[in-house]
């Protein structure tokens, strides 16, 4: 799904030994010291009394902007206190982040709804909990301007793409096709959906080997600018109030039980970072682009980043109803064995922090 440069992904998990190796390698290169926050402190005596280590996973995506900005500005370190060590691992795919959590290689993660759902279902509801939202919106269906696509019926015979089989955008695309009576080739229809990495989708778009793609930002904005694309569907238009979860904050269930104080402190930093980004969007985008370049070796064009940012909302609201609907859609498409995710949330720590800070609590 990123910074929004690498879309949220879910699907088949890679073998455990491989992910452990990846996690160890990423840990060696992904950890970094954070800078002290310049503006205000959020921790106080409680944070100074905390100790231990918090291991955090996230993507170099703008949909994971709180992790990137909060770490860069030192907000999380302030919230946790000087005696807590923060270790980071950067992932490009949801399955690898979930496997890292399964392997006890990370404690907290920023991740899309479908990988979180998959991890919850595969562990029979035991491995993780969603403790906050991170991003709403920021996913679009882009078609080539010369592909003659004006309505759903024009998708007959077209070749489309999503970031990965069974990932958040893939489920959205397949659900849209199903709702409009369109069948895939392997179902006796004439529409092809080819899962591909976001950079490959852009390349195929430019070569005119794809007619459309459902992708996270900033890849939508890049397909428009670099791939002769135009906006066909802004996914916000498909959800009540334009709100749907694109990224959540998850925590290992064991870590939540054993270290509720650290989880709560992290959420304090998450809320402060969310507010700072929303109050300082231009400065936040500058930080995001700089960190993306450090993590991926390439920054985004300013106009692409700013356009992509207008299509998402940075928030701590998990938009629960949209995750439940996504689970039903994934189940209906055969990607998960059950859609029973009613206990995936534990919002008690978040609501405690929101109450302390005078913010409305999540119902």
Plain-language structure description:
The chain is of the alpha/beta class and 363 residues long. 43% of the residues lie in helices and 18% in strands. It is built from 15 helices and eleven strands. The chain has helices at residues 16-30, 44-49, 65-72, 75-80, 94-102, 113-122, 168-179, 198-206, 219-226, 253-258, 260-279, 281-296, 302-309, 320-332, 348-356; strands at 52-58, 84-90, 108-111, 128-137, 139-144, 159-162, 192-195, 212-216, 229-234, 245-252, 312-314. The strands form two sheets. The protein has a six-stranded mixed beta sheet with strand order 2-1-3-10-4-11, sandwiched between helices. Strands 7-6-8-5-9 form a five-stranded mixed beta sheet, sandwiched between helices. The longest helix has 20 residues, at 260-279. The two termini are 27 Å apart.
List the helices and strands and how they pair.
Layout: H1 16-30, H2 44-49, E1 52-58, H3 65-72, H4 75-80, E2 84-90, H5 94-102, E3 108-111, H6 113-122, E4 128-137, E5 139-144, E6 159-162, H7 168-179, E7 192-195, H8 198-206, E8 212-216, H9 219-226, E9 229-234, E10 245-252, H10 253-258, H11 260-279, H12 281-296, H13 302-309, E11 312-314, H14 320-332, H15 348-356
Parallel strand pairs: 1-2, 1-3, 6-7, 6-8
Antiparallel strand pairs: 3-10, 4-10, 4-11, 5-8, 5-9
């Amino acid at each position: 799904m990123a910074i929004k440069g690498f879309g949220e992904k879910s699907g088949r998990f890679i073998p455990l030994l491989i992910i452990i190796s990846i996690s160890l390698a990423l840990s060696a290169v992904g950890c970094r010291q954070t800078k002290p926050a310049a503006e205000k402190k959020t921790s106080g005596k409680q944070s100074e009394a905390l100790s231990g280590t918090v291991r955090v996973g996230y993507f170099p995506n703008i949909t994971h902007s709180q992790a990137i900005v909060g770490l860069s500005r030192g907000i999380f370190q302030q919230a946790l206190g000087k005696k807590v060590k923060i270790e980071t691992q950067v992932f490009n795919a949801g399955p690898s982040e979930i496997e890292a959590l399964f392997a006890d290689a990370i404690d907290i993660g920023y991740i899309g709804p479908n990988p979180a759902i998959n991890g919850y279902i595969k562990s029979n509801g035991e491995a993780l909990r969603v403790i906050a939202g991170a991003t709403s919106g920021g996913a679009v269906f882009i078609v080539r301007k010369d592909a003659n696509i004006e309505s759903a019926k024009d998708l007959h015979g077209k070749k489309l793409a999503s970031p990965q089989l069974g990932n958040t955008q893939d489920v959205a695309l397949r659900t849209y096709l199903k709702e409009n009576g369109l069948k895939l080739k392997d179902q006796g229809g004439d529409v092809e959906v080819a899962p591909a990495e976001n950079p490959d989708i852009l390349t195929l778009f430019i070569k005119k080997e794809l007619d459309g793609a459902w992708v996270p930002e900033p890849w939508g904005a890049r397909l428009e600018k670099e791939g002769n694309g135009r906006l066909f569907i802004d996914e916000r238009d498909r959800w009540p109030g334009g709100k749907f979860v694109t990224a959540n904050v998850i925590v290992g269930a064991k870590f939540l039980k054993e270290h509720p104080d650290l989880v709560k402190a992290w959420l304090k930093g998450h809320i402060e970072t969310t507010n700072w980004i929303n109050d300082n969007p231009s400065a936040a985008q500058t930080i995001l682009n700089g960190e993306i370049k450090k993590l991926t070796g390439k920054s985004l064009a300013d106009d692409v980043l700013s356009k992509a940012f207008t299509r998402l909302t940075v928030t701590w609201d998990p938009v629960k109803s949209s995750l439940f609907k996504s689970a039903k859609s994934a189940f209906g498409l055969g990607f998960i064995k059950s859609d029973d995710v009613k206990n995936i949330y534990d919002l008690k720590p978040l609501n405690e922090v929101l109450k302390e800070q005078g913010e409305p609590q999540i119902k």
